[in-house]
Automatic annotation (TrEMBL):
Protein species of origin: Accipiter nisus (Eurasian sparrowhawk)
Designated name of the protein: Importin subunit beta-1/Transportin-1-like TPR repeats domain-containing protein
Ranges of residues in domain Importin subunit beta-1/Transportin-1-like TPR repeats: 141-288
Example GO biological process: protein import into nucleus
Keyword Protein transport: yes
Gene Ontology cellular-component terms listed: cytoplasm
InterPro entries for this protein: ARM-like (IPR011989), ARM-type_fold (IPR016024), IMB1_TNPO1-like_TPR (IPR058584), Importin_beta (IPR040122), Importin_rep_6 (IPR041389)
Subcellular location: Cytoplasm
PANTHER family found in the cross-reference section: IMPORTIN BETA
Length: 764
């Protein structure tokens, strides 16, 4: 770090003092390029670097000012969101001032581009204080540039300003409502009139801007313009067949339709007949590929949109990338429609599933190889987006198809099931694999018991066994690499990334097992036993904490869904689970505490002695001085919930009257929403049964109970649609009828708590 800082001091001095602008320009562009690779080294001196770069926004030469904008924009991306948190005041002011550089359009445009980078990753709370100033500058610049477009045909700055407006609205969300009417008329005017071929990028960006503003301000505000906007989009959509394949409006239109779907909800269904044709056409694009010799390469060198890999022997492999990004976007939009419209999308489920399922198989067996031999990383990312969208669509399409009845639903599941299982076994990219595994688990939850036949179970069991064995093998290999003489911080960083990726796949193994246990119950245990030794290995004391966490989660599911039969595995997991209640890792503590809770709730009589043994361990965690810190609170809340479940479901294992006052003092839970519902339901049980310990002499504990209920409401611990909310409201209403007691309870609450009680009564 010291040597890097010294080099930078020399660098800063040299490039800031030389007279030739080319050196200053080159230095700033070089600084833009090194941020990602030198992230760690630059972060410590970022304040010095930013102050240095901002000086060049005032440089006499426009290309230097351009390069300074470039450096600011790149750092805003490379160091987000810390960059925004540290430098928001000076950077926003400097970029807005640079956007006033009317004599140099490229500088203006690049200042706007840097502002886009900055606002995209800027926390909403930081941006809000600058909204008035941002809007003032953006609106005045838009008006000037719109006039220049009409008079001179110049559009470069306007394109970037429109995107800047979209980015600010996207970050500000509902706080953008007061500025909506300032921008929308001009934006609609651009879409309506910018119909010339040279303005199609501007038109596409404006369509994007309108849809992002609509999403930001919400349906109620946007509805005043929704009809006009939809007509403009429909007109463009009608002309889709006349657009060239590389027309930039296509991708903007596809994304805009998806945002309109989110804004309008069910009301968007009427537009599907117009939207779906072009969308399916784009999603069905097949990439052109070719194996070429040197002569062919020379003939095609000027052909736009091709990427090539040299295979040796004067041969090259080529793939035409035009349309691939649009294909990925279209697939993601189909996912959006299925998610938002649900049964309203049922008419299109068959054609969409026939499109999506082959994408899981074909891209794995062919396109991945093309990338692996060296094609551009950009293509790899596009392919990943397509496969992820294909996987994500599967459970959503099943949800859409429910309305057609069980026979139609089963046919659709049979069409996708084999492909999903095969993809889990063959997908080489861990990011895509995790999404496929997650979607497969969700599909099983939708379909339930009986959705997998013996062949499916056999194949799936072998794949999951292989994933677990690979997990252990990879850990061993990483340990060997840590002993290598070339081991250093960079190697460790790479190994940690590999470990994170492996652990994430382990979580998806857990997801699949969870869905199977919850659907099949104890019937599936004989199948599970082939995996049992590997799961037991996960919870051994010497394993890393993520292994122990997810191993315990799997046994938690067995206890919850397969009891009382689960007790036959008690020798493998009970002792590790009890020992893990006080583990150093909060994640492991949480998994162990949840396990004790489901033991009490579902485990049966065989688990009684272990519930008794667990109680003092749970209390020790709850009463720890740092129990409520951010990293510990979820584990602590699971311990509190587990104590409540022991009292409720295994009351003979504990002195309930002794423990209840302590348990009340630990409430409410508000981080773990699922466990909060359990605790509030048990609290309602106790109140409704007039439990004397909970209510206290002459109902003296009711003010405290009101405080618990109010704090739970403030922290949104329970959703208003949950039946528990109605029970809590009824408790409050019963007290409301007894004048003096009601006054006493309310008077002991602060203003926020009183408002929360009123909100609870209004919602239930």
């Amino acid at each position: 770090m010291k040597s890097f800082s010294k080099i930078n001091n020399i660098y800063f001095h040299f490039y800031s003092s030389v007279a030739d602008w080319k050196y200053r320009h080159a230095g700033l562009m070089a600084l833009s390029a090194i941020g990602e690779g030198c992230h760690q080294q630059m972060e410590g001196i970022l304040n010095e670097i930013v102050n240095f770069v901002l000086l060049f926004l005032q440089d006499p030469h426009p290309r230097v000012r351009y390069a300074a904008c470039n450096a600011i924009g790149q750092m805003a991306t490379d160091f987000a969101p810390g960059f925004q948190k540290k430098f928001h005041e000076k950077v926003i002011a400097a970029l807005l001032q640079t956007m006033e550089d009317q004599g140099n359009q490229r500088v203006q445009a690049h200042a706007a581009a840097a502002l886009i980078n900055f606002t995209e990753d800027c926390p909403k709370s930081l941006l809000i204080p600058y909204l008035d100033n941002l809007v003032k500058h953006l609106h005045s610049t838009m008006v000037i540039k719109l006039q220049e477009l009409i008079q001179k045909g110049t559009k470069l700055v306007l394109e970037q300003v429109v995107t800047s407006i979209a980015s600010v609205a996207d970050t500000a969300e509902e706080k953008f409502v007061p500025y909506y009417d300032l921008f929308m008329p001009s934006l609609k005017h651009i879409v309506e009139n910018a119909v010339q071929k040279e303005l199609r990028l501007l038109r596409g960006k404006t369509i994007e801007c309108i849809s992002l503003i609509g999403l930001a301000v919400g349906k109620e505000k946007f509805m005043q313009d929704a009809s006009d906007v939809m007509q403009l989009l429909l007109k463009t959509q009608t002309d889709f067949s006349d657009l060239e394949d590389d027309d930039p409006q296509i991708s903007y239109m596809i994304s805009a339709w998806a945002r309109m779907c989110k804004i309008l909800g069910k009301e968007f269904q009427q537009y599907l007949p117009v939207v779906m044709g072009p969308l399916m056409k784009t999603a069905s694009i097949k990439p052109e590929v070719a194996l070429l010799d040197t002569q062919d390469m020379e003939n095609m060198s000027d052909d736009d949109g091709w990427e090539f890999v040299n295979l040796g022997d004067q041969q090259s492999f080529g793939i035409k990338t035009a349309g691939l990004e649009e294909k990925a976007t279209a697939c993601q939009m189909l996912v959006c429609y299925a998610k938002e419209l649900k049964e309203g999308f049922v008419e299109y489920t068959e054609q969409v599933v026939k499109l999506m399922v082959p994408l899981l198989k074909k891209l794995i067996t062919s396109l991945w190889w093309w990338v692996s031999v060296g094609l551009d990383c950009f293509i790899s990312l596009i392919m990943k987006r397509v496969r992820v969208a294909a996987a994500e669509s599967m459970p959503l399409l099943l949800e859409c198809a429910r309305v057609r009845g069980p026979e139609y639903l089963t046919q659709m599941w049979h069409f996708m099931c084999d492909a999903l299982i095969k993809a889990i076994g063959t997908e080489p990219d861990s990011d895509v694999l995790s999404e496929i595994m997650h979607s497969f688990a969700k599909c099983i939850e939708v379909m339930g018991d009986g959705c997998l036949n013996n062949e499916h179970f056999e194949e799936l069991g072998g794949i999951l066994k292989g994933k677990l064995e690979e997990h252990f093998k990879n850990q061993e290999l990483r340990q060997v690499k840590r002993q290598d003489e070339d081991y250093d911080e960079q190697v460790e960083e790479s190994l940690q990334d590999e470990d994170d990726s492996d652990v994430y796949i382990l979580t998806k193994v857990s997801d699949i097992l969870h869905s199977i246990f919850s659907s099949y119950k104890e019937k599936v245990l004989p199948w599970f036993e082939r995996l049992l030794p590997l799961i037991v290995n996960l919870i051994c004391p010497h394993r890393p904490w993520p292994d122990r966490q997810w191993g315990l989660c799997i046994f938690d599911d067995i206890v919850e869904h397969c009891s009382p039969s689960s007790f036959k595995y008690a020798e493998y997991f009970l002792r590790p689970m009890l020992q893990s209640i006080c583990d150093n890792s909060p994640e492991v503590r949480q998994a162990a505490a949840y396990g004790v809770g489901v033991m009490a709730q579902f485990g049966g009589d065989s688990y009684r002695p272990f519930c008794t043994e667990a109680l003092p361990l749970l209390v020790r965690v709850i009463q720890s001085p740092d129990a409520k810190t951010k990293e510990n609170v979820n584990a602590t809340e699971n311990c509190i919930s587990a104590v409540g479940k022991i009292m409720k479901f295994k009351p003979d294992c504990v002195n309930v009257e002794e423990v209840l006052p302590h348990w009340l003092s630990w409430l409410p839970l508000h981080e773990d929403k699922e466990e909060a519902v359990h605790t509030f339901n048990y609290l309602c049980d106790l109140i409704e049964s007039n439990n004397p310990v909970v209510l206290g002499p002459n109902n003296s504990n009711l003010p405290r109970i009101f405080g618990i209920i109010a704090d739970g409401e403030i922290h949104e611990a329970i959703k208003h649609e949950d039946p528990c909310t109605k029970r809590l409201a009824n408790v409050v209403r019963q007290v409301q009828t007894s004048g003096g007691l009601w006054t006493e309870c309310i008077s002991q609450l602060n203003a926020d708590q009183q408002a929360a009680i009123q909100e609870l009564l209004n919602s239930a």
